[in-house]
Specification:
The protein has three domains: about 60 residues, Ubiquitin-like (UB roll); about 140 residues, Threonyl-trna Synthetase, Chain A, domain 2 (Threonyl-tRNA Synthetase, Chain A, domain 2, 2-Layer Sandwich); about 325 residues, 3-Layer(aba) Sandwich (Rossmann fold). It is globular. A hairpin with a 2-residue loop joins strand 11 and strand 12. By secondary structure, it is α/β, with parallel strands linked by helices. It has a five-stranded mixed sheet. It has 15 helices and 21 strands. The mean pLDDT is about 90. About 35% of the residues lie in helices and about 20% in strands.
Length: about 550
């Protein structure tokens, strides 16, 4: 027979293990412990599974409360705000349709479609309506229902994009949320009520709007909007690719997979990549006597290495002779490498590189001299005394791949007009449905989980644990400089999630529920569950996705 109380081990300094009545709601416990947190508790991890505050505790549990300084907390906050935006638009403009697009400048870009283009005045009305809903503290209510019940609601709310996706759902039930009688599906958890959503701003950004969120590191503030015209342009280009292929969401992609037509999608997707790479090679070739150095940079798992190989081939087609330099070979000896705030060697810091020697070599190379490129031995943490000798011909061009490529501090001795900078990233524009986007960060993490297991012997657990520090390095060393690029290349492929699913799912399923990373593995598995598996048979050997799943002709 069970005791009337449960042992609750709250992960809060000085609290330890306490007893609580069985059947107590998380919201009641959160109220007791809120004084230990600066920001509102928005959810909790119960035995490493994320639970909303409406969850009832019946057994002994390990609990970690989640506020907005936690990545999961900020995801819940953003998702709830998006629901609030969609409801406000529906209340004000029933004839309009909201489509959530992609991230931009610490916010999310959305389009509000109708017979006329959205205006600044309408955006101001939407924001005012959202603030009214926040003041009312309307609950977000979770409903578990059969697939058939969910389909009826989706038809009523004219959500055929989500209706199609349900055809491929394996689970016999669907979780739907409502807010003041308005129903919608969201992949993930919600805040308890609209009153939690105090901090946000809407910015008119024709033809749509941007919803700006608070900063995870300082949830009292909303980061200033920073114009990112080049990045926005590459998303628009990808949108055109989506139109060419006729695949706007996961449901349509799944239908193509089921009907056996995915081979054509693969071929067209790869052709679009090849055409873009050829155009970049043409731009470099037109300026080769002025721009002798091509710097390639981008965040983790963007496919930079394969891109560099394919760009090299296209440059050769144009009659040029590309020479590749690996920035890693200019690492300082490990003993001289700076350390981060945790006392660990910080190999992602610019100061970890011998920039003086690197710039000396660059100047000699573009002057036609021969240099001996060092070779860094990662095992010993030292540079070898002798390296690789190279020289740049008259029609030669130097290709340099590395995370600091867009930062002018890497190459201060080289005039800007002598450099051509390329930003490579997997900027996913395919949505699960109109209201659930696919974060580019998630797509890159799944790429990395697959690659690290195949080539580096790392488990999915290892990759997920390391991911926050990888993201921190990107925020510091890559994203602030992305608009410095002369051109951007989107390495995302419309079909890739279905391919990665085959490789990543078994790895994620290995993560034990006793691990703190279990909730993240569950989240990614839920995400992958929206896609049918795609075999890799028809993927060409030079595809960027081969860098992660294997079978590349470049390795």
């Amino acid at each position: 027979m069970k005791k009337d109380t449960a042992m609750i081990n709250a992960d809060i300094d000085g609290v330890g293990c306490v007893e609580a009545p069985r059947g107590i709601f998380l919201s009641e416990l959160a109220g007791e412990y809120q004084r230990h947190f600066r920001y509102p508790i928005i959810a909790a991890k119960v035995n490493n599974e994320i639970r909303e505050l409406s969850f009832r505790l019946e057994d002994d549990a390990e609990i970690k409360f989640i506020d907005l300084t936690d990545a999961d907390g900020m995801r819940i906050y953003r998702r709830s705000l998006i629901f609030l935006l969609i409801k406000a638009v529906k209340d004000l403009f029933p004839e309009r349709k909201t489509i959530i697009k992609h991230s931009i400048s610490k916010g999310i870009y959305a389009e509000v479609l109708g017979d006329t283009e959205l205006t600044a005045e309408e955006v101001a009305q939407i924001e005012a309506e959202m603030r009214k809903l926040v003041a009312k503290r309307i609950p977000f209510v979770k409903h578990e229902m059969s697939v058939e019940e969910a389909r009826e609601i989706l038809i009523k709310h004219e959500r055929m994009d989500r209706y199609i996706a349900l055809e491929f759902r394996k689970k016999p039930y669907v979780t739907v949320y409502s807010c003041d009688g308005f129903y919608d599906y969201f992949y993930g958890y919600m805040a308890p009520d609209t009153g939690y959503l105090q901090k946000f701003e809407l910015k008119y950004y024709p033809p749509g709007l941007i919803i700006m969120f608070p900063d995870q590191n300082n949830p009292d503030t909303i980061p200033p909007f920073v114009e990112q015209k080049k990045l926005f342009g590459i998303f628009r280009e990808y949108k055109n690719w989506v139109k060419i292929l006729g695949i706007e969401n996961a449901g349509i992609l799944n239908d193509i997979v089921r009907s056996g037509r995915i081979g054509e999608v693969i071929r067209i997707s790869e052709a679009l990549h090849e055409k873009k790479i050829a155009r970049i090679a043409d731009l470099i070739s037109e300026n080769v006597y002025q721009k002798k150095i091509v710097l390639i940079a981008g965040p983790s798992s963007s496919g930079k290495t394969t891109f560099a190989h394919r760009l090299s081939i296209q440059l050769r087609v144009n009659g040029l002779k590309p020479v590749t330099v690996n920035l890693d070979d200019y690492f300082l000896n490990r003993i001289d490498t700076p350390k981060d705030e945790n006392g660990e060697y910080d190999y992602e810091a610019l100061e970890a590189l011998d920039t003086e020697l690197f710039n000396e070599h660059l100047n000699k190379l573009i002057s036609g001299e021969e240099v001996e490129i060092p070779i860094f031995d990662f095992y010993t943490g030292t540079r070898k005394p002798h390296g690789r000798k190279i020289r740049l011909d008259e029609n030669g061009v130097l290709l340099i791949e590395g995370i600091h490529g867009l930062n002018e501090r890497l190459t201060p001795s080289i005039p800007r007009e002598r450099k051509f900078k390329v930003y490579v990233s997997a900027l996913t524009s395919l949505n699960i449905d109109d209201h659930n986007r696919i974060p580019s960060t998630d797509a890159r993490m799944i790429r990395r989980i697959t690659r690290d297991h195949k080539y580096r012997g790392n488990s999915a657990l290892d990759t997920i644990r390391r991911w926050p520090s990888v993201r921190k390095g990107e925020d510091r060393n890559i994203f602030p400089f992305q608009e410095e690029a002369d051109v951007m290349f989107n390495s995302a492929l419309l079909y890739e999630i279905g391919v990665l699913k085959v490789h990543a799912e078994p790895l994620l399923m290995e993560i034990d529920r006793n691990c703190p990373e279990y909730s993240e593995a569950r989240r990614l598995l839920e995400f992958l569950g929206n896609f049918l598996p795609i075999p890799s048979d028809e993927i060409p050997a030079n595809s960027i996705i081969r860098e992660f799943i294997g079978g590349s002709c470049f390795y």
